[in-house]
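Assemble and predict.
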Amino acid sequence: MIDCWTVLELLKEPLPTAVIGLGKRGLKHISVLERCPATALVGLCDSRPEALAPFSGAVHTSTDAERLLSEVGPSAAVVAVSHDAYMPLIGHCLAKGVSCLKEKPLARSLSEARQLERLAAGAEGKLAIAAQRRHGDMLSAIRAVMAAKGRPPIAFQYVYTLGLTPSGRDWRDSRDLAGGGAILDMGYHVIDLLTALLGVPQCVSAFDQRPGGSADGYVENGATLLLSYPAGTSGTVIISRHLSPEAERATFWFEDETVEFDGQRVTSVRDGERVWLADMQSSEELIHRQLHAFLRLHSGEPNMSCDVASSLESMRAIELCYQALESDGIAHTRPEAPEPSWRTRSTPAASALAPVREGGFSQ
Ligand SMILES: NC(=O)c1ccc[n+]([C@@H]2O[C@H](COP(=O)([O-])OP(=O)(O)OC[C@H]3O[C@@H](n4cnc5c(N)ncnc54)[C@H](O)[C@@H]3O)[C@@H](O)[C@H]2O)c1
C-alpha cells in the first residue's frame, strides 16, 4: 500500500527534511518521516526548548527556524505550528528554495490564503497543504460511486465531534492566533472533503452551538452548517469540539443507494443489501500517503491532492461559513442569483460534478 520505493526512485535519494513545530501534530510527522525511506530527517525546530530536549544528540535541533535552515540546509520542511506562526516560517523556507508541507488549514482567512498563494507562486520551493482525509479510501469510494452513477448525491449528513473540554488557554481559543474556531480547525477536514467531492457551495447557513467569547474575540466551539452545491446536492454538517462522544460519521444519499461511513468502514446499502466499499486508514497511514503526495509535488509532478489551488477552494467554502455566522445565518456565493425553479430544473449532468484533474484527490 505504502509505496516508499517508487517515490524514492523518483527522488533518486532520500530527501533531507526538517520538521518545524514539535507539538502534537509535528511529533506524528516525525514518526512517519523516520519510517519512510524516501526521506532523511536532518533537523528539528521548536520555539520551546523543552520540546527539543528528547531529540538532542540524535538530530540537529534549534529554537530558531531561520538558523536551522542555514545550519542544516534541508530540501524540504514539514511545518506544524500554531496558525499565527506560519506566514514568516513558510516565507523563510520558500525564499531559501525549501519545499514545505504545511499543516492545515491553508490559512487563517481567505485573504491570508491569497498572500500565501502569491508567496508560493514566485518560489523555487514547492508548497503543499496537509489535509489527510484527501488521501483516504473514503473519498475515493464516494467518488467511485459518483462516477459510476454520473451524478452527485442528493443529500448528505456529516457529524464530527471531539468530546473535548476547551481549556480556554490554548492558541486555539484565540481568534487572532487561530483565525477561527471549530469551523476552521476541525471543520476544515470535513469542508475540504466536501469541496473535493462537490466543489464550492453556492449557499451556506451556519449556526453556532454555544455562543461565547474570548479575550480577543469570539471563537466558535462548534457549528451546525447547511450547505447547498451548484449540482443540486444539499446537506448538513455538525462539527463540535465539546459535544460527546467523539465520533465521525457520514451518510450520502443517492436515488437508489446510500453510502455510509461509520468511523471505521465505508459501506453501501442498495435494495436492502449492505456491501463493503472501503476501510478508513489509520492516521499514520494517511500522514504517510500525504507525505508521498508532497514528495511527488516536490519532484515536479502536479498533485491536486495537496496543492494550493485546490485548498483555496476549501478556504472559499470556509469563508462562506464565517460570512453566514456573522450575517444572521446565511451566505451566498451569488447574492443576485435568480430563484431556481425546481419544477423545470433538469437533472445535473456528470459534467456538473466537482472536476477531477490528473493527480486529483482520488488516489
Ligand atoms: N491534519 C490533522 O489532523 C491535524 C491534527 C492536529 C493539528 N493539525 C494542525 O497542525 C498544526 C499544529 O497543531 P498542534 O495540535 O500540533 O499544535 P501544538 O500547539 O500542539 O503545537 C504547535 C507547536 O509549534 C511550536 N511553534 C509555534 N510557533 C513556532 C515558531 N515560530 N517556530 C517554531 N516552533 C513554533 C509550539 O512551540 C508548539 O510546540 C496546526 O496547523 C493544526 O491545525 C492538523
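Residues 20-26, 45-48, 51, 65, 80-83, 85, 89, 103-104, 130, 132, 185 surround nicotinamide-adenine-dinucleotide (CB under 6 Å).
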